[in-house]
Amino acid sequence: MSSHQGQQAQPIHFYPPKQSLRYGIRETAGRHNRYRWAVVALTQVLFYGLCWLQWQGNPVLRFDFERQQIHWMGSLFGPQDLLVLALLMIGGALALFAVSTLAGRLFCGFACPQSVYTTMFMWIEQRLQGSPGQRQRRAKTGQWLQSGLRTAATWGTWGLLSLWTGWTLAAYFTPAPELWARTLSADLGFWELFSIFFYGGFMMVQAGWLREKVCQHMCPYARFQGVMGNSHTLNVSYDQQRGEPRTVMAKRTPATAAACIDCGLCVDVCPVGIDIRNGPQYECIGCGLCIDACDRVMTGLRQPTGLIRWASASGRSWRTVWWQPRVAVYAGLLGVALLAVLLLSLTRIPLQVDVLRDRNVLSRITRDGHVENAYRLHLQNYDTVAHRYTIRVEGLPDLRLLTPPDTLVAAGSERTLVVTVLAPANDNALSVNPLQFTVQASDSPEQQRTRASTLLFPR
Predict the structure, then answer these.
(1) Per-residue pLDDT at 269 exceeds 60
(2) What is the pTM of this model?
(3) 186 or 253, which is more confident
(4) How much is the average pLDDT of 15-21?
(5) Per-residue pLDDT tens digits for 387-403
(6) Are 371 and 457 in contact (CB under 8 A)?
């Protein structure tokens, strides 16, 4: 509750935004900073470690563009599973919409790859070059050589991290143990080298040079995110009534003792360099670092924290902001999408069959008076083990299928068979007759596909 509640409302003052320190962004401690680093740790442990994990002798996650396959937890997914991928992407979008409705750009400040890698780069910069104040003092005392060496070490470390990140990305397309062996023997292919250096260079530019400019000027999400919020959306906000007029410590008197002492720390720690005290701004990424900095100052002054806090225009808190029709709609649609993914995964048959007629010989009569039709059966085994498949044909009496009794298809492989169907001559038969091919795994009866075709009788 505002300390000025019940008193006459003070006029709102606006000040020109303070520029962030010339020599970098100041670090701060607090719960939001801890949450951010927890997200950084979780996401990067998954990214850098998942490519090394094995499941039944295969990578846990691998993208095989050559075969148009995705390996995930011992399962293979191919083009016929695009619906599952589409539903997962729709679910991710719905989750992002729900988060935007609840807390604005919370995703940007904590989980966006741009923020994550910028946070890592800034940590390296602080460790090697020191705080902004230390850098400024070295510049004023003319320690140019030491500053240059520290800057070179910073960019060199950034480069190594970027190359390792690019290498890790390539390891999701080429198994990591194989890629590592080929890296040591200098036997990397063109696309692997391209992925490593392109993504590494892209990371250097984004996180090392552009940084907050990406969030301010390049990110499309910052432009349309505002339309997903409403009066209940929580955003990082400054309590104007409690904090204004700002008065520095040296000029404070009991009559003008508003909470804000105009220390500028909320600007110094902001990754995008804005002054949250000047009202809501689209550049704010919702990282909450200004809250941490302000709370530390308020604690030192023995005043209540929360001068800068998460707040909504309607006055809702974290406990009540969840109960909104829009959030319920997003959550319901997200639940439907995830349920559909679960059902599709449980009922998925890792066998794909396509039947095509042989256009060179549509139909002919053999020497013994039978009618012969030729077909091409394309079998794709999306299981992690090899299977033998049997083929049956149905549709007319006394049909014979000239094909091997069973066909072996290796795991994650495909095979095309040329099969011939013989039917006894029948003057009463139609010129075009329906036909069905059934392909079934001998060791797994539930893996079965039926495909329709036609049997032609010459006239």
Answers:
(1) yes
(2) 0.82
(3) 186
(4) 44
(5) 999 999 998 888 998 88
(6) yes
pLDDT for res 11: 44
What is the 3 state secondary structure string of the chain?
A: CCCCCCCCCCCCCCCCCCCCCCCCCCCCCCHHHHHHHHHHHHHHHHHHHHCCCEECCEECEEEECCCCEEEECCEEECHHHHHHHHHHHHHHHHHHHHHHHHHCCHHHHHCCHHHHHHHHHHHHHHHHHCCHHHHHHHHHCCCHHHHHHHHHHHHHHHHHHHHHHHHHHHCCCCCHHHHHHHHHCCCCCHHHHHHHHHHHHHHHHHHHHHCHHHHHHHCCHHHHHHHHCCCCCCEEEECHHHHCCCCCHHHCCHHHCCCCCCCCHHHHCCCCCCCHHHCCCCCCCCCCHHHHHHHHHHHHCCCCCCCEEEECCCCCCCCCCCCCHHHHHHHHHHHHHHHHHHHHHHCCCCEEEEEEECCCCCCEECCCCEEEEEEEEEEEECCCCCEEEEEEEECCCCCEEECCCCEEECCCCEEEEEEEEEEECCCCCCCEEEEEEEEEECCEEEEEEEEEEEEECCC
